[in-house]
Design goal:
By secondary structure, this protein is mainly beta. An 8-stranded antiparallel barrel has the order 1-2-3-4-5-6-7-8. A hairpin with a 6-residue loop joins strand 5 and strand 6.
């Protein structure tokens, strides 16, 4: 019995250390920016010389970014729509701010959010060629695409404590 209690005490000590490390590693993300996108029917690709990582060309558009990345955004979207339950997506574009263009890439997964498939949620990552914009090599994004309006809103999340 004493041996059992000793082992249990050691196990609890190890568990406490692991939980302490895990809680210290848990991110405290804050929304750093919001991206609003609008598809432009008939718009040609903004970046026609770029090859997609995957998927077929779907649309191009523009939008606005507020918050810490405030500016105008243009984009081309490629998607793999071979599955009904998820569409891997690849955005390529640039952010215009302060008289400069900052190229970016978003890689994400769209999943249907409504039974009629007119709303799709996305979860993914955005990265800029200039890492100083985010203060990190990349940042998570989450958001919602509305097919009726051909528009989307995405939040860009930054873990300010991890910098």
């Amino acid at each position: 019995m004493a041996l059992f209690l000793l082992r249990m005490r050691r196990s609890m000590g190890v568990l406490a250390v692991v939980l302490g490390l895990a809680s210290a590693a848990v991110a405290a993300p804050q929304q750093a920016a919001e991206i609003t996108l609008h598809a432009l029917p008939g718009q040609s690709k903004w970046l026609p010389k770029e090859s997609p990582l995957f998927g077929e060309y779907l649309a191009s558009g523009e939008g606005a970014v507020s918050g810490g990345l405030a500016g105008r955004i243009v984009w081309d979207l490629y998607e793999d729509q071979s599955r009904e339950d998820r569409h891997p997506a690849w955005f390529l574009g640039y952010l215009e701010r302060e008289g400069r263009r900052f190229p970016f890439v978003i890689v994400g997964i769209y999943t249907p959010d409504s039974a009629d498939r007119l709303r799709w949620r996305i979860s993914g990552t955005i990265t800029f060629d200039d890492a100083k914009l985010l203060g990190a090599p990349h940042a998570p994004i989450t958001g919602l695409f509305e097919a009726n309006s051909m528009s989307a809103r995405y939040a860009v999340w930054i873990d300010r404590d991890a910098r």
